[in-house]
Design goal:
Distance between the termini: 14 Å
Strand content: under 5%
Number of strands: 0
Radius of gyration: 22 Å
Order of helices and strands: HHHHHHHHHH
Structural class: mainly alpha
Helix content: over 70%
Largest sheet: none
Shape: elongated
Number of domains: 1
Length: 236
């Protein structure tokens, strides 16, 4: 499932403002969200294909593995989509509560404290009292917030995209088992595809963080292999 830790403070603040209805609209999924969903689905399917015994597996066992991989990632994709909607409601509700606290505060300093607490620390630390007061006045003049946090069309589309990313990440890894009759060759090709996908995920992540693409790509392969080993060892 999506890890909140995968989102940086900047992305989280933009996301929080948009979900709370207090900021401009955003893309359905930020790059780090797409990255984490594909990575999650990829780790799940690799852990399933890795459990296949090439020494004894026949077409029946391969078919069982394919059904398990597709079913697992479909189930987790749906679960992740629902959890995304729940977290959206919670985050948007917190934004509405904070906005009401600012508007209802009898003392402007109390309202400023609420605003400062709602902002990322890196942002709040550089704002002066006059800056916070200007924000307070704009929030007080803003339209009345809704009584309950709504779910919008974009929220539903984002949830659907999350489920799709998790589910569709299954196919590149399992396609060799469909195209090739020899299990060991299919497994080797599947592992090669998974390694390339992990590397490309790391490369893409480096472009958004300003890191070195080659180093992050190789690091992502090592992390992926380690996570798969851990999941397999724990019986996943």
């Amino acid at each position: 499932m999506t890890s909140p830790a995968a989102r940086g403070n900047g992305a989280a603040s933009r996301e929080g403002a948009a979900r709370a209805g207090l900021g401009p609209s955003r893309r359905l999924l930020d790059p780090d969200e797409r990255f984490s969903e594909i990575l999650f689905g990829l780790i799940m399917v690799i852990s399933i294909t890795g459990s296949l015994s090439v020494a004894t597996a026949g077409r029946a066992e391969v078919g069982t593995m394919l059904r398990a991989a597709l079913g697992c990632n479909l189930a987790w994709g749906l679960t992740d989509a629902v959890m995304y909607l729940l977290s959206t409601l919670i985050l948007r509700g917190r934004g509405i509560v904070a906005l009401r606290a600012v508007r209802d505060a009898a003392d402007p300093r109390d309202a400023q404290a609420v605003i400062a607490q709602a902002l990322p620390p890196a942002v709040g630390s550089v704002l002066t009292a006059s800056d916070l007061e200007a924000i307070r006045r704009r929030l007080v003049a803003a339209p009345e917030p809704p009584a309950r946090p709504p779910i919008t069309r974009d929220d539903l589309l984002s949830a659907a995209a999350i489920g799709a990313f998790v589910f569709l990440s299954t196919f590149p890894v399992v396609i060799p088992f469909v195209l090739l009759d020899e299990t060991i060759r299919a497994l080797r090709m599947s592992n090669a595809i998974a390694i390339v996908m992990l590397f490309l995920l790391g490369w893409a992540a480096a472009r958004h963080t300003g890191s070195r693409p080659w180093r992050i790509g190789i690091g992502m392969v090592l992390i992926g292999v380690g996570l798969v080993a851990m999941v397999t060892a724990l019986g996943g």
